[in-house]
């Protein structure tokens, strides 16, 4: 199912503005409600200005025999993104000065953009340069670059509390698979899971934005709100390729986002590495900028810059796999479930341990115990010993080298027995793991959808 | 000598209450003064209540031919500890439901208790189940479970100051060697050493308690006093078996107890490992509970749960060795001597180094020096450089990778020369290592003892 | 050139006082201005007193045939430094009691001093003891030990600011190469470099002192000034021998001196080790004493005590190399340039990243970039992200694993564009690396020098 969605979205000509973005969001809206917000060209956001809207109908290069030797219809990367309209005959030299290739990867079309400087150009496989033997060429770029709008997609699943969790991905790299169609796909699957799960402690926000300008625009509008409410967030990018995970920490490095993701990765036993935040990256550059410094990390697979097909036409369907996408969806869901399950408690009995058997929490026969009894007693005693207001469930689970959400079920039991009280003071309903994990990846049939 | 004491104590039927505990404490009182304190059944201590006192005269199972096929006389573990009185004929099925075995260790009798739920049962080797071929059996448990007392043994060696050091072991695991007759034996040897040593800076308290209920009871009575006075403490358990040491840190993890024990273990060159505190353990669970959080760790050898004979009849005399017990006594004594020797000083000359040769502390001929001179000068200069009120001798010795008590002798010299002053402000007598380390393990002949 | 200077200084009879020190400083003054400061015998400095001044004209031992079998003319180490005047005939036994040898290094003359106790003696190769077959000997020590002066050499290169950097070396180990003629040589080369470089942010102070008494004396006079002004300092000693560097941290361990030296060593790729401060050492013992605790470390090569020729006549010209001396000069200069280049900035755009292309700082064509572009953009984005007032350039360079002074050039660019402002508030001229690094090691011809 994910790959069917992939195949619908992959051919769309997407850039940082334009109808391609709207088309993609409309298709995703079949699965999950996504509001399209439009912001006009020329609008200022911090140090930036929303550019003109760009749309392209066709673009090609014809040789002297009238053959289209380069055609946007063949691959979206053939045209430099944001190329200005052009129609005319150019000499071979003039044309070659406008053509980008990758000599070191002669079969790949490079990905080139010129968002903020008016320009035009084409991108082709280096091996095809030898076909340019004519002395002049007809060039057509039937595009518009006019005042219009930049489109942001936003989804929301409400929870019981005031705090929220952010997932953010980007919509602007056309006809590339890992970077970046995998992010919107995985984020949408996670969004769909949460819609169906319900009974959430946190509110969940899902952003589909053009990279950089989109997150800057969003922060210029809603940054103060996020600063106040955000408990954790993740940039979802490069999640379809490679055997292992990379988690890039938030700039603060010790936020709930980081602790939950690292906890889940470690407990998963799957290959992974943890890297420090850096300004080489995606929208976490903006989310973690000094004035906001939000708790936003990024769980990826093989990340931008770490694979040779990056930013070329070889970052295609063959590079990614449904299994990798699905495994990433699972991992994001486990992280979210860990955050949902997490809580900080305080023991009610701090003068020595409470007597557990009189509350039915300990076998009345001592001496030898089964493995299961030992595990349960171990979780109980760790929770009682470390619930001092300073350690949340993730901390305690890390001390035990156990899965945090397992611990949450035992914590609910101790809460019911009056041995723990939540530090927040609020009533905490017993944590219940979602029962239908199998279902989350099956998109809701279109007929049952309501579009937003 | 230790093993003779072992042989007297091993056969005693000990539980968390009863005459077995008193008998054990009375025998130990031949070596060191131990006060027996009695607390009545029904008394409340925090969340716990002192149970009825349990004593047993005999217990057996007879087959139809009148043969005793299980007899408490053969092994104390045959009867579930705290079994209620019973006398009657039971069917094979009824009996087998009351019999505990360890299928995975068919030659071991398991250790089973039922302190807080009235019940009875027997424990046998799994291999012997095949002997139970009759259809009914005569069962006799001639025990009493009545209002009585719980007994705590306490010893004390006074020192010059107000602070104290605690050693605590437990008295309630009958006829098992490493866990737990080794603890009372080692603790008593250390106690005897300190009695003879005298001239102590700290007061020393020695507790012999039933595990869990005993330490909780003690804390309910004296916890505030300990919180005020305790400088360091250790739970002495599992100290007779295995080639290497395990030190389990206090919950706070950086207390004097931890620093001294870790320092001594490292300097000893003996194999050891350091583990974090956890609520899987013995009475440090109570001593380190949130309200008290005392500086109490535990120096063990092969610890509870880490050897297959744990909590079975195979934890017997063959499992432990006199050498291991003795080596542990030595290690505890070295830790205590390190704590006795430890002090925080302040240099009187902080504007550059003082001139050492004019005080006879430095060779007047410079250039080349013997190894001994270099060592001595090195200790002097480290003491002067780091005695800034923030580093005690253990810290400074750790920086030098030297034995702390060696450093103490040099510190006394500098104190005498006026180059150091104690931070505590009190007069500190020159540290003197005890000269008779050879003697400590030889129990004082009974005739010379005064009982308490 | 360095080795020519070495050859002029090596034969001079230097001690902690006397004309040898003055002669050495006068020769160095041909290269760099060095002021000679004289302090009288008997003057008190903290716990110390300046000793009498010692000078020696000749010293020898003659056998019965009138042959000089030991002669100060042959090697400065033959006479115990600070030997009192003596002239007379002594028996073989009396003489041997005054003779120092190194049995484990029979071909080496040991280095022995007796600064603070009036005494005399000779030092010879252990192998030569067999030549002492006569029953009596004529001994002449034509020395003076009288009230006089202790000489300190001091140089200074002024900078724009108020803070200063200290280099300190010692003048008192005669006719030994690594420890210690290498220190004065390297320090003088660095001093000469800074004189020619000019345009300095920091003031630079260069001390040439007798070890221990000299730094104590200096601190007694100027310690409070140093405490107020010193940003970083290094003791320059043992810098001519061995393939790798040793950096000994200041006692505080995290000062600018430490961070700059460790940064430069790591970026150099040269073999090195970092060690903690200890009171086994040279004048950092005094500079880091508790009352001052200055930010003074020590960059060495094979350090005192780590090579067998240490403090013997085998620490000679063959032990050191011009390459090693030169490489150390280079390393000190790189450290100083790193300190000069270091600054703490604050980003002016903290709400998301500023738009770089409109300031000409970012390629307007995106997608693929050259390695150089990526490097430059990377430096820019790191500087903007981490310039929050808490991280200086060394910190940011360490995060990037880049050379700090490279980062400084990019920082100047951002400063010019108004994207960074200095935290200090002061006007910061653009950092410019010195262009004439090749020249620094060529001493200025004597004719062009001005003496101080």
Automatic annotation (TrEMBL), chains A, B, C:
Pfam families: DUF2172 (PF09940), DUF4910 (PF16254), HTH_47 (PF16221)
Region of interest (Disordered), residue spans: 431-452
Domain called DUF2172: residue spans: 53-144
Protein name: DUF4910 domain-containing protein
Record-annotated DUF4910 domain positions: 4-342
Domain UCP01524 winged helix-turn-helix: 344-421
């Amino acid at each position: 199912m994910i790959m069917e969605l992939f195949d619908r979205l992959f051919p769309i000509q997407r850039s940082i503005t334009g109808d391609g973005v709207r088309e993609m969001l409309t298709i995703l809206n079949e699965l999950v409600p996504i509001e399209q917000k439009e912001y006009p060209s020329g609008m200022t956001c911090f140090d930036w200005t929303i550019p003109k809207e760009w749309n392209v109908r066709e673009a090609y290069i014809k040789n002297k025999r009238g053959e289209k030797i380069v055609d946007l219809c063949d691959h979206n990367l053939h045209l430099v993104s944001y190329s200005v309209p052009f129609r005319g005959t150019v000499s071979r030299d003039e044309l070659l000065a406008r053509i980008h290739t990758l000599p070191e990867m002669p079969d790949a079309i490079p990905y080139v953009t010129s968002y903020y400087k008016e320009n035009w150009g084409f991108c082709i496989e280096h091996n095809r340069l030898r076909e340019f033997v004519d002395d002049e060429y007809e060039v057509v770029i039937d595009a518009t670059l006019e005042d219009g709008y930049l489109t942001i997609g936003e989804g929301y699943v409400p929870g019981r509390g005031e705090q929220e969790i952010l997932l953010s991905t980007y919509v602007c790299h056309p006809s590339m698979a890992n970077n970046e169609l995998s992010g919107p796909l995985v984020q949408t699957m996670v969004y769909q899971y949460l819609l169906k799960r319900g009974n959430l402690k946190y509110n969940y926000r899902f952003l589909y934005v053009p990279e950089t300008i989109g997150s800057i625009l969003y922060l210029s509008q809603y940054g103060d709100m996020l600063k106040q409410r955000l408990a954790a967030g993740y940039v979802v990018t490069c999640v379809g390729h490679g055997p292992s995970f990379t988690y890039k920490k938030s700039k603060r490095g010790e936020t709930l986002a980081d602790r939950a993701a690292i906890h889940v990765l470690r407990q998963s036993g799957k290959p992974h590495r943890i890297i420090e935040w850096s300004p080489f990256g995606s929208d976490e550059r903006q989310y973690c900028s000094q004035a906001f410094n939000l708790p936003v990390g990024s769980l990826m697979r093989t990340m931008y810059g770490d694979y040779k097909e990056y930013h070329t036409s070889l970052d295609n369907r063959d590079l990614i796999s449904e299994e990798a996408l699905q495994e990433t969806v699972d991992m994001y869901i486990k992280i979210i479930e860990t955050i949902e399950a997490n809580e900080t408690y305080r023991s009610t009995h701090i003068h020595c341990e409470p007597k557990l058997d009189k509350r039915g929490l300990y076998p009345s026969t001592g001496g030898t115990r089964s493995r299961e009894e030992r595990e349960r007693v171990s979780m109980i005693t760790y929770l009682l010993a470390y619930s001092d207001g300073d350690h949340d469930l993730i901390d305690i689970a890390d001390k035990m080298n156990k899965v945090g959400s397992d611990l949450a079920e035992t914590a609910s039991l101790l809460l019911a027995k009056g041995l723990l009280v939540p530090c927040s003071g609020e009533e905490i309903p017993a944590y219940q793991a979602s029962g239908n994990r199998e279902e989350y990846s099956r998109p809701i049939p279109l007929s049952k959808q309501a579009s937003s």
